[in-house]
Design goal:
Length: 136
């Protein structure tokens, strides 16, 4: 293999290590060998899956154009396929994805939608930290 292939693989690895998913998604456009595309497609599926899990926790909805850009999907038709593939994973996280009026909605259901007592949780953590400090 030539140096440009080694540089390409090193760049993909560096982007993955740093968590720069956007850069990894863009790597497919600059692939130096068609052999890499097989692996990149698998990596891209995994990255899209991880972005999907983050998006459903971070947003209540996203505009369709933003969804296409976020997941680097080329068309609404491909987006519908992607959404179908995400259906089970989203349900496992107590989220239902709904495409309506040019927006993707993340409807929270079940346990995840319950309110968390943040103040109580913070106080417990501070007490644990103080107790740990006394032990040490």
């Amino acid at each position: 293999m030539s140096d440009k292939n080694i540089e390409f693989v090193a760049q993909v690895e560096k982007s993955l290590t740093l968590g720069n998913y956007k850069e990894v998604l863009n790597c497919k456009k600059s692939s130096t060998h068609e052999f890499f595309n097989l692996f990149l497609e698998r990596i891209l599926e995994t990255i899209r899956f991880e972005i999907a899990r983050s998006a459903e926790k971070a947003y209540t909805s996203l505009a369709l154009k933003d969804v296409l850009e976020l997941f680097q999907i080329s068309s609404e038709e491909n987006l519908v396929k992607f959404l179908k593939n995400q259906e089970n994973a989203a349900k496992d996280n107590d989220v239902i994805w709904r495409l309506e009026n040019k927006r993707l909605y993340f409807d929270v259901v079940g346990q995840m939608g319950k309110h968390i007592n943040a103040d109580g949780l913070i106080m417990n953590m501070l007490n644990y930290a103080q107790d740990l400090e006394k032990i040490i």
